Amino acid sequence: MLQEVAKTDTGDLVINVGPQHPSTHGVLHLVITLNGETIKKVEPHLGYIHRSIEKMCESLSYRQFIYSTSRMDYLSAHINNHGCALAVEKGLQIEVPQRAQVIRVLMDELTRLASHQLWWGALAMDVGAITPFFHAFRERELINDIMEETCGARLTMNYMVPGGVMFDLHPDFQKKVKDFLTLFKSKLPEYDELVTGNIIFQNRMKNVGYISKEDAISYGCSGPTARASGVSCDIRKKYPYDIYAQLQFSEAIETAGDCWGRYLVRMEEMRQSISIIEQLIDNIPEGDFVAKTKAVLKLPKGEFFTRVETARGELGIYIVSEGGLTPYRIKFRSPGFSNLSALDHMAKGQKIGDLVAIMGTLDLVIPDIDR
Amino acid sequence: MFLSKYISEVFGGVKSLLTGMRRTGYYFTHHKNIITQQYPNQKPVLAERFRGEVVMTHDENNEHACTGCTACELACPNGTIKIVTKFDITPEGKKKKAIDTFVYHLELCTMCNLCVDACPTGAITMSNSFEHSVFDRSELTKVLNKPGSKIREGVE
Amino acid sequence: MEFSLASIADSIDQWLNAHCASWLALTIEFVIVGVLCIGLFAVLGLVLIMMERKVSAYMQLRLGPNRVGPKGMFQTVADTLKLLVKEGLTPAGADKFLFNLAPFVVMIASMLVLAPIAFAKDFVIWDVNIGVLYVSAVSSIGVIGILMAGWASNNKYSLLGAMRSGAQIVSYELSAGLSILTIVIFSQDMSISSIINSQQDGWWIFKGHIPVIISFVIFIIAVTAETNRAPFDLAEAESELTAGFHTEYSGMKFALFFLAEYVNIFIVCAIGATLYLGGWMPLHIGNWEAFNHIMDYIPSSVWFLGKTFFLIFVIMWFRWTFPRLRIDQLLNLEWKYLLPISMFNLLLATLVAIQGWYF
Q1: In the complex, which subunits touch C with 3 or more CB pairs below 8 angstroms?
Q2: Are the Cβ atoms of A15 and C156 closer than 8 angstroms?
Q3: Which range of residues forms the domain containing residue A10?
Q4: Which domain holds residue B15?
Q5: Interchain CB distance below 8 Å, C321 and B24
Q6: Residue A246 and which of A67, C72, C141, C246 are 20 to 30 A apart at CA?
Q7: pLDDT tens across A37-84, in order?
């Protein structure tokens, strides 16, 4: 090891963080160059969980390919499926029934809540507090139960189909969601007690991993990562899809640009999601939950692009159709990939412990980055 | 000024730490909040829609509703379902298409429910069973139609 | 006769001296003490690991180990057996001698500190007249073992963890030492037994009020850091350095590190209980004769263990509540907060002691 360090002129230490490492949340491989405890360079090596989902989708029909997008960003599986369904509907010009739109948005926001809860617990665990992880899972489990009851699965639901949703809501859905919201609102102050207010946690987050507004835009950051730097980029506000245009909610924006800003944005997003669900849960219109579609879907020749706001940022779905049964080409613009690209910029000059905190606040989901 | 800031910093920090300790202390003493499900002893209550595996429903006469139309096979994104058809001779002497074996590869299945959605006769459904572990991979390849079963009268 | 460990020890001593030569009796007594120490280590390891797992489980809304034996009590025994039969790997390129020596250095260092601790009334292995000085001197030998382990492992994570540990322990020794000094000022003696005897009419944490309470808080923080426990577990820091200095250790060598960590906690908590909470002294309140009399009936060893385990619980409570500090924040906390505060506190304590403003 000494000889290896001596080989470099500057005495830098090169460490492989991952692909098997507790805080990379999967199989991310970072090659970090250290000077003592200070990080000089972070180089992400990708591809350990590349399953070529985009290529696979080219051989699947327009009904079939949606399921595979649940496996990209598995924490916002619903939202990925939603985006794909939107793209197909755009191509076929299907009018989605009002009820289906409301159900979709409800599910999206529940997914966002579940994803942010997991992020909260995992972030706390990254900075060394293990207990919050279990507290976060207590509430997340309830969302999973709601999902299981209505969609039939807990994580990869495949609930969205072109034209609407696969099943109607379960009769208990409204009651369960209301119970969950009452409980969750009583538990949110506990989150603040345990983590947000904690002086050690605040010191770990503040002035760590700063990225300016300009840099966030040029790195293509999106979602809470960019909004923490003051970039207004919520797709739900900017390019509203389904019924988001009719909803009252505010875009969570911070200007700090550091880990603390990203933390606050996500906490605020949880509150906004609660308010969206509260607006909708009593106003689910009657009607069909899925539009009548042909058994075999064929998109007309052309290019179709939709974007949705996942829990991590902007997901773009780009479909090129030659008019056949399967897409000619599909490209997903995943939020995690662009957010990860800013990691080197954020972590430069920080300590090793900060790298872990930055990765935690970027909320990386590795299958989303590699696809 | 420096000193008062310093002291208030110290006390604020200690207070925030004590708040957190009060929360964990609360859970340490209140055991009714424990959420552990002791799984093998305590079976989870699954929702009726929970998708565990594809099954073919048979009635008491050992009859199913599968016509062998292969809509599910076409709908499946992973090639999980393979349907082998044969030709039955009806009493009138006509040839009629029917299933010979409905092969279901559980190891490939992602429980996406597209096959159940595609089935025109409601012959297959998703069951709640979730304990799929076996010692040999080949045991995961299942034949869904029971031996000797035949198609129910009137299902086209 | 009242139950007391001291009388048992005395009768053994008398019996041995009556039946064999004095040199032989002494040797046998050494052996007995050694075996007792090792036995205490093993029992402490099992009990404390079990306790930690249960404490963490209840704080995390879990049940904790509950399958092996009644209420899962034999879980740690089973774990130990597993560790005993596991292969102890030595990585390629490691400095074999240091690598294998390190766990024993850590272990022996924590074993040495057991000597001056009074487990019950008149029940001490070696009542040295500089007890607290001995403790603070010997307890820092352990870091050499950690540095050895980190260096010899030929692993960059281990090296980083060991270096962190070195910086950390050197810093926190200071405020731990200064807060021990506060008690030395009050009790005017360094031997553990006379410090305990000075608390006959009340524990120092009550008698010495403000300066002692401040030094108690600093002591608890400093020893948490010295034993590499969360929120100061930077030497291990599993989310940053996977396992820090013991990344490459497996089997029994890992178990020794693990055991030493828990024994260290026990020792520092025992020192804390001795200095601040009166060691084996029962709780006496002023003139409540009846109450004091009842308290006297509880054996002194129970008092000692009760206080120690209370402090251990507090340290575990810290671990399962707080996030980890960063390395520069850790050193900031010591040099910018704890050290100045404990220095001023030492002055305050001296003032209080000279003026006799304590009870």
Answers
A1: A, B
A2: yes
A3: 2-370
A4: 2-33
A5: yes
A6: A67
A7: 888 888 888 888 888 888 888 888 888 888 888 888 888 888 889 888
